[in-house]
Amino acid sequence: MSSLDLKLVMLSVAGSDAKSLPRLRKLQSELTSFLIGSSDKLESSSSPLRLEKSKTERPRRSNMLAEEGPRLFDEKLSAQQKITLLNKIATVKDGTVAFEIPKDLELTAFGAEEEKVYDACYIDDPADSAEPRYYPPLQVVILIVGTRGDVQPFIAIGKRLQDYGHRVRLATHSNFKEFVLTAGLEFHPLGGDPKVLAEYMVKNKGFLPSGPSEIPVQRSQMKDIIFSLLAACREPDLDTGIPFKADAMIANPPAYGHTHVAESLKIPIHIFFTMPWTILPGKVSESVDSYQQALTWPTSEFPHPLSRVKQPSAYRLSYQIVDSLIWLGIRDMINDVRKKKLKLRPVTYLSGSQGSETDIPHGYIWSPHLVPKPKDWGPKIDVVGFCFLDLASNYEPPEDLVRWLKAGPKPIYVGFGSLPVQEPEKMTQTIVKALEMTGQRGIINKGWGGLGNLTEPKDFIYSLDNIPHDWLFLQCSAVVHHGGAGTTAAGLKAACPTTIVPFFGDQPFWGERVHSRGVGPPPISVDQFNLTKLVDAIKFMLDPKVKERAVELAKAMENEDGVEGAVKAFLKHLPHQLPECRPPAKHSKLPPTAKKSKVPPTKPSNPPPPKPKPSSSFTITGCFGCA
């Protein structure tokens, strides 16, 4: 798919049924009356709106971006104007948004000047060295949408919060109920099927649909998720019947609707994610100058991972453009749930996906030694470190795998976790041939993609299902995977040179970060995956200098505790006054120091928080595949 009609995004807003087509055409016609700039006018209404560039159009498009780009930050911009503006300046391709700006355009045109620099690029202690304020036991809900790898770091965070004496409910897809319960957390189901979501994302290369037939899939999944969020925050436990009412919320961005539910319940929300997603607050002020005082502000150091822009002056703008396109596709569903479930007034096209009037604290789950905190991110944004869930301590590998590992040198791991592979047999043949040509042994993870089915056994190949990466990668010399944040973290922690084969989303972002750090070759897009590129990548990883850099990075990450950093960031940004906190359920376990605290719930003081007890070990039958 070389380009995507903007009408697909508009159709997603209008709905996917045939009755919506007249509405779409009417809207498309109405857009032609909007003027861009002082003299440029839209083309005839008979020509369809397309997110596609032509050679003759580029000079005019660049001039429009220079004049009109800053208006994407204007909350008075109407829906029709925003759609028209996006159509004029951006191209949606392979699930990402591409645009360019004139080379002579000053940074100040997009609020990207370097004046706003915060003195906070935390390396030694990502979540700040100050001890967080102590709070009586809270009931915390964690809303997570995604694959098993997206859920896994939040299980670690939830367990640590539980160690501090808080009651934690992790709400995610039903597929992961056993995973959550086995970890000792409470579970509540969210809508959406992670397998369907993964297939959709792989097919469409991201969130935006690649054709009309994909729109119903996207909207059905998103609606199920959005309408399940409120129940996860206040309904009793479905198995035990124990009442639950959230005092605070943690969520990842794909759980669209989280901020609106938090608004309805009047509880604080903290967003954590594995890729940069901070956008402008929904409503700070009408002027760009006031926006620059916001504590959560998009960075100008790198672009949104779902955008394709090479000019640094457009990095900050990329966050607003991506959010605008996504928001146009889900706004009607958000307003539907606000009216029917949350009893809130509808929000406008101008509000953005968060629709919040205040700065929402953000925490990013990656190592500051891999991607340091940008200097223009304010104090409400933390880089906490990778969050690992210890799955290796109680893991017992199959005896035949142990024998195979002992029979030769360390192998190279190849696997794509929960992501479906379009031609698994062909990809398996390519992997086997590349390993054979480079004289390497290999472990192939079957995952959801169905890799590793060989027509005849090879003694240098071992195929397996999901195994804890924190155990397996220590047995490997290098790793080849899709580039999910969790899998990337596990490989780097094990000092493995890494080749990333990105499918969509943040995976290209991590591929570039790994390569820029010198611990892996340039990422290989899954569409360009072939024998020659894989052989070259393996040779790159076998270079002793690459291994040295991987060992250095692993040592730098060794003392990081991303889970503790995330918990400290969450507690640090909670408001000083919370709604009356309820005591935890009888089955909740509190550390002794928390039980003996004499701090009255209605008058919180600021002593050091109780030190948590180490989480108890547990055994599960599998481990994360896609992270």
Automatic annotation (TrEMBL):
Residues 140-278 form the Glycosyltransferase family 28 N-terminal domain. The keyword Transferase applies. It is an enzyme of class 2 (transferase). Residues 463-558 form the Erythromycin biosynthesis protein CIII-like C-terminal domain. GO terms for molecular function: sterol 3-beta-glucosyltransferase activity. Keywords: Glycosyltransferase, Lipid biosynthesis, Lipid metabolism, Steroid biosynthesis, Steroid metabolism, Sterol biosynthesis, Sterol metabolism, Transferase. The keyword Glycosyltransferase applies. InterPro entries: EryCIII-like_C, Glycosyltransferase_28, GlycoTrans_28_N, UDP_glucos_trans. The lineage of its organism: Eukaryota, Viridiplantae, Streptophyta, Embryophyta, Tracheophyta. PANTHER family: STEROL 3-BETA-GLUCOSYLTRANSFERASE (PTHR48050), STEROL 3-BETA-GLUCOSYLTRANSFERASE UGT80A2 (PTHR48050:SF13). Residues 50-60 have a biased composition (Basic and acidic residues). GO terms for biological process: carbohydrate metabolic process; fruit development; post-embryonic development; sterol biosynthetic process. This is sterol 3beta-glucosyltransferase. Its EC number is 2.4.1.173. Pfam families: EryCIII-like_C (PF06722), Glyco_transf_28 (PF03033). Residues 40-66, 578-627 are annotated as: Disordered. Residues 601-613 have a biased composition (Pro residues). Belongs to the glycosyltransferase 28 family.
